[in-house]
TrEMBL record, chain A:
It comes from Cyprinus carpio carpio. Pfam families: FANCAA. It comes from the Eukaryota. One of its GO terms (cellular component) is nucleoplasm. InterPro entries: Faap100, WD40_repeat_dom_sf. GO terms for biological process: interstrand cross-link repair. This is FA core complex associated protein 100.
From TrEMBL, chain B:
PANTHER family: FANCONI ANEMIA GROUP G PROTEIN, FANCONI ANEMIA GROUP G PROTEIN FAMILY MEMBER. SUPFAM superfamilies: TPR-like. Transmembrane segments: none annotated. One of its GO terms (cellular component) is Fanconi anaemia nuclear complex. GO terms for biological process: interstrand cross-link repair. This is FA complementation group G. It comes from Cyprinus carpio carpio.
Length: 831, 611
């Protein structure tokens, strides 16, 4: 099938249109045009300019001309039906050149409303009768009014049809939201007496009689056909609506002809024969095409009949029009011309099978939302007037060559015009191709991006699943590790966490990815409720092998509370798949709620050990001052003045806690190679204080003096002792880790941190120890007794606290503190 | 302090100017709707100005009067609920002016408060004006209970011993309607009250009629007759009285009131229509035709002049849509014309009937000049039937060529619908739509057959025997297409509907007529055997047809079968033509005998005596 070439002329360009309420009516050289806003433009095709602008009070739904074309009826969104006379130079239809080059603005006054009814949906005018269709409480009612009539209009009749439940039509939400208005068409029987009105289609008398009955045909009455949004096509005889039924009763004049089961877009007549158009054509929104033809009475005297043929074309159909041979319809992407034929009785079967495969010719004009015509201009070519979605008014010159067979030679005078037309159509096609290419490119990009995202996720999820199996040595393709550091900013020291996201996988992380770091304090202090914070770092691109360093503060609301758990995850936001000017708003709407997916990367814990400061460059000025007195004391201290209070703090003996671990256990777990006890102690201390610097020793003695985050000095000490009476096998080498400081908080925090480290170490590598030690019952018994006695004391203290009330809290806390120290000072040995 | 009285004066003057314009327009020969609209918008603007400042007692009278005028003007331009909203606003402002608290927006309670607060003050006339507006609005919405409550509140001074009744309440209503000459009103409160009174009573009567309680309705209408009222309204009251009498089985009383109605108001169409119905019931075709003719001319006159009544408050507005259509219910001009034509032809005044039928056909064909509607729920006959009736009338009026043309129309239009065969199964029970389709098909066959039959008769009258025989044959061929499976359908009543039986009787009658007609043609052409066959068949179809019997006698006589002839002769005189309910176009006429029967009579009597 050849693509039919047609030329397109741009007549004018307006602003964007509302696709479902664009209407064009041609009246001689004038064009009445509405784009679904408040204006009706009168466009002179010869002068190619807007001569008059009629401004209505509300946005336009439908337009129609009265029978004599002197009055314009307009249905607006406020439910008002306006009737306004057309400007005189229009109604005379003469080619009067308007002297003034400016277009006339004409505001349609409020009192030109002839009918106000918010449920009005559509209307048409025929035979000086105004037919309106309104939907009220699921009843469609057709109302007939005298036209032109007094105001308010004199109502002549009213018929009603109940709506169908439309859920059976499987309307998608989109189709429902863009509800298509009903279509009202008035069809006249073709005949010698019929008035030659070009506003309404005609139908040959034979088919007209078969479809609409004897009465309509005898009276030559036009028939109103109505395509409802539920797909039904109803009809009633306009002039003789209330006729007696077969049993003498009055019957409903409205009859359902057929149902398209999809919103009806267009009803018209087509295929001219000698008595007028021979087919009734209806087009549904989703591309269903109904063609009604008459079947001739065969010779056997069988009664004549008509046939409904249903075909489908590619939807969605936005608008359509017919000439005597073809149906033109516009889907959003193209304008099509469909050749329609009539079935003659002899070749009925053949043609019917042919018709199943109706093919349409593409005219190559895209985004047409309204059509008028077709019209035959004086030179004999057929023209369509079209309005595109972007508000362009186009004149489509249809090719005539298809039936002539050969293209006639053009006279040279017309050749220039022809070239111009061809260039214009090339430009049009180029524009269309460009827009399609752009759309395709965008789609491909999105898909590629999505593919990559899914790949990255599968990598991450593999990591996560294998986390336990992997040991520390192997590296994940995408990993995140963090180190806590002290940094000084604006003369203030603060503890920050530096996280490094390393992409060692083969693929690139494109834009749309975000590194999320959630900091979650583990201790639950009085003001710690909901103090976990999340930091997001969106990044544009992370190539393979690149690293991303981010630093987040660990303090919240000016307080540092340790230990802190840090969760790192990679999040991808789906909206990044769609470019910001996404063509389909529906998808991005869907994304508003759960528009992202996230995959966990790693979990870190920052504890007191991490927050220790090894160096002594810890100036007093930078110590945090919680209260005013603290500040004053610090000031005094810095001046060298010792107050009495500070004396007492310094005098009080440092608190000591210790942890004992079997040195053999640590040796195997930490893979220590050192043989001497001193080296062993140093390595253990190194492991505790600076785990990241595993190789070089940052600590050169078994005793290290460090500063806790709150500025107290802490002594950490590791030494090896031998417990002789502990094991039945002989003396046991035990590493004793001792923490000494005057600050209770530091001691507790460090003790907890050390225990946690050991716990992790022992849990992570659950290698069975070679043999269990035989413990001496005596030492075990003693230890248990010691603990039991402490427990009893604790119970006593609790009882007293319960009885004592507030007065004795000081004493109680002293007791409890003592118990705590005793428990910590003489711990059990970890074997 | 000096500004306020000045404003009051200025606004009063503005109001008076508007009213003056209106009164001039009202008095003028050509009352103009635009003037009314202008008055309305100006009055509304004035009201908005007045409402722009807080309500106060010194301006209360002015404000209420302007509200009253505005509401009267707005009747044609706003709907009742909009006016009611504005009225509630006015009442609230009146209460505010008197310093009362406005607690609710329910109109009944609001009125109670207003009447209590202002009921004994100098503002009573103004309050009562607004009360009339409220009454009017509720009347328009047919809310007679609320009207009753409102009027009872107004009459609160009286002791209620008698049962509460809207009629007595209205009768006893004492409203102070004195006018203030310095503040003009668009319609005097007294006039409005009288109009509302009579309309309320009429409304009650109509409601009673709708519930088929005609004697109660009569009481209401009789009360309404005693009240002062405009002519048109009085005519309608008389018509409604007549209708109630007709329903109560007193047609002569009904006719009396219809006549009174027409005397009072010459344009009272419903009275004419109702009297035509009564005349038909009484079997007085001449009077019926006359009434219908008057009605038809009146309808045409009325449709010529535009019926825009200029009066400020018309009863049509007060009664609302449904009530008004009930009161002045007249069929559409086409329907009247058809009834008139049908009645004329049916009762033998052929020449008038033909003219009416031709008028009707012309109005149907004239590019649909008017919509054929029937306002009163009856339906227009099918168009082919109208054509056949017209053809029949033309035939009887001896305009044979015209009759041929009219029937040809029916034939061409029904041609496509005639089935090859239409077999009806009397046992089969058809439901709703299916049975309608079957009936429609039978109708189409019947119409086509009848059209051929009429054409054949026209040809026969034109002495074109050959064409006549052809057309009779066509008619027979069409009609025999309807065929009932069961032979004894006439005796047994199957599950069939009345309509089906009626159709079949009609088809049989048409068949009989066609066969008899063809037999007659054969008889004239001397083909006696064929004539005998057809006439016999015809008698089988429609036994007891006198003309056919006589023709059969003639045929038998000519065939020298004198015994049989004399037997038939005797049978003809012993039987009576059974009256059959046939459509107009199949009615038989005495003049259908094509030849002189006196000759046959002489022969037969001679033969019988000779025996």
């Amino acid at each position: 099938m050849d693509a039919v070439r047609c030329s397109v002329e741009y007549l004018s360009e307006f602003s964007d249109c509302q696709s479902h309420s664009v209407r064009v009516i041609q009246d001689g050289v004038n064009l009445l045009l509405t784009r679904g806003d408040r204006e009706v433009l009168i466009f002179n095709v010869l002068e190619r300019r807007v001569t008059t602008v009629m401004l209505f009070e509300a946005s336009m739904i439908h337009l129609a001309l009265s029978d004599d074309k002197h009055r314009l009826y307009a249905l607006c969104a406020n439910g008002g039906l306006y009737c306004t006379p057309l400007p005189p130079q229009l109604s005379s239809s003469s080619v009067q050149v308007n002297k003034s080059p400016d277009s006339v603005l004409f505001t349609v006054p409020d009192d030109s409303i002839v009918l106000k009814n918010a449920s009005l949906q559509a209307f048409t005018i025929a035979e000086k009768i105004l037919v309106t269709l309104s939907l009220h409480k699921s009843v469609w009612s057709f109302d007939l009014y005298e036209e032109p009539g007094s105001r308010p209009l004199h109502k002549l009749a009213c018929f009603q049809v109940v709506t169908l439940n439309t859920c059976c039509l499987n309307l998608t939400d989109k189709e429902k939201s863009v509800s298509s208005p009903p279509v009202l068409t008035c069809i006249y029987p073709e005949g010698p007496t019929s008035v030659s009105t070009d506003l309404h289609p005609h139908l040959e008398p034979h088919l007209f009689r078969l479809l609409f009955g004897v009465d309509a045909s005898l009276v030559n009455s036009p028939v109103i056909l109505c395509g409802l949004p539920d797909g039904r096509i109803c009809c009633f005889t306009l002039l003789v609506p209330t006729l007696a039924g077969p049993t003498g009763e009055q019957r409903s004049p409205v009859r359902v002809l057929q149902s398209l089961e999809q919103p009806v877009v267009f009803i018209g007549t087509c295929v001219s024969g000698e008595h007028g158009p021979q087919c009734l054509v209806a087009v549904g929104q989703r591309g269903k095409l109904l063609i009604v033809r008459s079947k001739q009475a065969s010779l056997e005297g069988k009664k004549a009949d008509y046939s409904f043929n249903e075909h489908s074309v590619r939807g969605p159909v936005l608008c359509a029009c017919v000439d005597d041979k073809r149906l033109y319809y516009s889907s959003l992407s193209d304008l099509h011309a469909l050749q329609l034929t009539t079935t003659s009785s002899s070749e009925a079967t053949e043609t019917e099978s042919q018709l199943q495969t109706l093919t349409s010719d593409s005219l190559g004009v895209c985004r047409v939302v309204a059509l008028a015509g077709p019209y035959t201009n004086p030179t004999g070519s057929v023209q369509l007037l079209a309005v595109s979605l972007s508000g362009r008014l186009l004149r489509v010159n249809l090719p005539q060559g298809s039936e002539k067979g050969n293209v006639p030679r053009l006279p040279s005078s017309l050749a220039g015009q022809k070239v111009k037309d061809l260039l214009a159509s090339i430009a049009n096609i180029w524009e269309r191709a460009e827009s399609l290419k752009h759309k395709l490119q965008k789609k491909n990009d999105s898909l590629k991006h999505l593919n990559q995202v899914i790949h990255v996720y599968s990598l991450l999820l593999d990591n996560h699943g294998n986390e336990k199996a992997c040991n520390m040595g192997t590296k994940h393709p995408i990993s995140c590790c963090g180190v806590a550091r002290w940094s000084s900013l604006l003369q203030r020291d603060s503890l920050t966490l530096t996280c490094v996201l390393e992409n060692s996988s083969g693929c690139t992380l494109e834009h749309g990815w975000t590194l999320c770091i959630q900091v979650h304090p583990l201790s639950k202090g009085p003001n710690m409720e909901g103090s976990s914070r999340t930091y997001s770092f969106p990044f544009m691109k992370l190539d393979s092998g690149q690293k991303l360093d981010v630093t987040v503060p660990l303090e919240s609301t000016g307080r540092l509370s340790l230990p802190v758990k840090v969760y790192c995850s990679l999040v991808f936001s789906l909206s990044a798949l769609f470019s910001p000017e996404a063509s389909s708003p529906g998808v991005s709407q869907l994304l508003t709620e759960t528009g992202s997916i996230s995959a966990p990367l790693s979990t870190l814990t920052v504890d007191w050990l991490d927050a220790l400061r090894l160096d002594g460059s810890f100036s007093h000025g930078n110590i945090r001052h919680d209260t005013v007195t603290d500040g004053i004391q610090a000031f005094l201290r810095s001046r060298g003045v010792l107050t009495k209070d500070s004396d007492t703090t310094t005098k009080s003996a440092p608190i000591t806690v210790m942890v004992r671990v079997s040195s053999e256990l640590l040796k195997t777990k930490l893979h220590l190679s050192a043989t001497s006890s001193g080296e062993r102690c140093m390595s253990v201390l190194n492991w505790l204080v600076s785990p990241e610097a595993r190789g070089q020793m940052s600590v050169q003695s078994p005793v290290v003096c460090v500063y806790s985050p709150d500025g107290c000095s802490v002594k950490l000490l590791v030494k090896e002792v031998t417990l002789g009476d502990f094991c039945s096998d002989g003396p046991l080498e035990v590493l004793e880790i001792r923490v000494e400081s005057s600050s209770v908080a530091a001691v507790c925090g460090l003790h907890h941190a050390i225990l946690r480290r050991l716990q992790v170490l022992l849990r992570d590598s659950a290698v069975k120890c070679g043999h269990t030690k035989q413990l001496k019952a005596q030492s075990l018994f003693e230890a248990v007794r010691h603990v039991e006695s402490l427990y009893k004391e604790l119970q006593d203290a609790q009882n007293q606290a319960a009885l004592g009330g507030t007065m004795k809290t000081n004493k109680n806390s002293e007791i409890l503190f003592r118990i705590f120290l005793q428990l910590r000072a003489n711990p059990l040995v970890i074997l | 302090m000096s500004v306020i009285p000045c404003l009051v004066d200025r606004w009063s003057e503005e109001n008076n100017n508007i009213i003056l314009t209106w009164k001039q327009n009202e008095r003028g020969l050509e009352p103009n709707q635009h003037v009314r609209k202008r008055c309305w918008s100006e009055s509304l603007k004035l009201l908005q100005k007045i409402r722009g400042i807080p309500a106060a007692t010194e301006r209360l009278e002015l404000e209420m009067t302007v509200s009253y005028n505005t509401f009267l003007f707005s009747l044609n331009f706003c709907n009742a609920s909009e006016i009611e909203e504005s009225l509630t606003n006015s009442l609230s402002r009146a209460l505010e002016a008197c310093g009362s608290q406005v607690s609710c927006s329910d109109p009944v309670q609001l009125w109670e408060a207003v009447l209590q607060t202002l009921g004994s003050s100098v503002y009573v006339p103004c309050v009562h004006k607004l009360l009339l507006i409220q009454w009017m609005l509720w009347l328009m919405q047919c809310q007679s209970e609320r009207v009753l409550t409102l009027l009872m509140q107004t009459n609160h001074k009286r002791e209620h011993s008698a049962p509460v009744n809207l009629q007595t309440e209205t009768r006893n209503l004492a409203l102070s309607t004195e006018e203030d000459s310095s503040l003009k009103v668009a319609m005097a409160a007294k006039d409005l009250k009288d109009l509302l009174h009579i309309c309320t009573v009429m409304c009650e009567g109509v409601e009673q009629m709708k519930m088929e309680r005609y004697s109660e309705a009569l009481e209401a209408f009789q009360e309404a007759q005693g009240l002062p009222s405009p002519r048109s309204l009085l005519g309608q009251i008389h018509t409604l009285t007549g209708q109630s009498f007709a329903k109560l089985g007193q047609p002569h009383c009904a006719l009396h009131f219809y006549r009174k109605a027409v005397e009072v108001d010459g344009a009272c169409l419903s009275a004419l229509y109702q009297s035509a119905l009564v005349f038909r019931q009484l079997g007085n075709p001449k009077a019926e035709i006359e009434a219908l003719h008057l009605l038809y001319s009146a309808v045409q006159l009325q449709s010529d002049k535009s019926s825009s009544i200029a009066s400020l408050v018309s009863p049509a507005v007060l009664f609302g849509g449904a009530q008004m259509t009930f009161i002045s219910r007249v069929p559409s001009p086409s329907r009247i014309l058809h009834t008139l034509a049908h009645t004329c032809v049916f009762n033998g005044s052929i020449s008038d009937g033909v003219e009416y039928y031709l008028d009707l056909l012309a109005s149907l064909q004239s590019d649909g000049k008017d919509l054929i509607l029937t306002g009163d729920g009856t339906s227009f006959p099918r168009i082919p039937v109208v054509y056949l009736e017209a053809g029949f009338a033309l035939l009887k009026a001896k305009r044979y060529c015209d009759a041929l043309v009219v029937c040809e129309e029916v034939i061409t239009s029904t041609l496509d619908f005639i089935p090859e065969r239409l077999l009806l199964d009397a046992d089969e029970k058809l439901k709703g739509a299916d049975s309608d389709v079957v009936l429609e098909n039978v109708d189409l066959v019947l119409w086509a057959g009848a059209a051929h039959l009429l054409q054949a008769q026209a040809h026969w009258k034109l002495k074109d025997t050959k064409e006549a025989i052809t057309n009779f044959t066509r008619a027979i061929n069409q009609l025999v297409k309807v065929f009932i499976k069961q032979k004894d359908w006439k005796q047994k009543h199957f599950g069939n509907t009345e309509a089906m039986i009626e159709r079949m009787v009609t088809v049989e009658a048409a068949k009989g007529q066609a066969l008899a007609g063809r037999g007659l043609c054969f008889l004239e052409g001397g083909q006696l055997k064929e004539a005998l066959r057809d006439l016999n068949l015809s008698l089988q179809m429609t036994p007891g047809c006198k003309n056919t019997e006589m023709w059969l006698t003639e045929v038998l006589w000519r065939l020298d079968r004198r015994e049989e002839a004399s037997a038939h002769w005797r049978e003809v005189h012993s039987t009576e033509d059974a009256p059959k309910k046939l459509p107009l176009y199949l009615q038989l006429w005495p003049d259908d005998t094509a030849f002189d029967l006196s000759d046959l009579k002489k022969k037969m009597e001679g033969y019988i005596q000779a025996k």
